[in-house]
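We include this case.
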Amino acid sequence: SNGSTGSTGGLLIGNTIPGVGTVTVSGVFSGGNQTTLEVTSGEIAVGVGNTGTLIVSNGGYIDSTGHSANDTVGLFVGENGGPPSSHGNVTVTGYDPSSGDRSEINVEGGSAAVGYSGNGTLTITNGGNVTLSGNDATFVAGYAGDKANSTGTISIDGANSTLQVAGSDPQYGA
């Protein structure tokens, strides 16, 4: 918190039964001195097999740069179903107009799947931002795959709140 930097390999939240987990990356808006979590290998997976929550607020920043070429999805929110009550929740909230800092998740070279064979919710509010970049950046919500009743819910609300999919061939799907 408050301008610190940490790093991890892959980030798995709510990964096993009965594993329920919450991770918060939060700081104080301070003109570029954001609280940063660097994900250096693997993906960010929230609610994979059970219930997980990721909150990025008050200038928190997650930079995911390390998933391999075989890991085409860098951000999973609600994957593989798990028990009926399993769910992945990601909230990115906060923007400071005086410093220009915003709460953000940046996934370089990968895609995002919300409700990918599971139940997922992505909420971007109050100036938060999620960026997917790379040649094949793709955003998919509610991909049922082999699991019935998969749901993907995306909510983008408030001034300056954005979901950016950039690359040579950006794709959106549901």
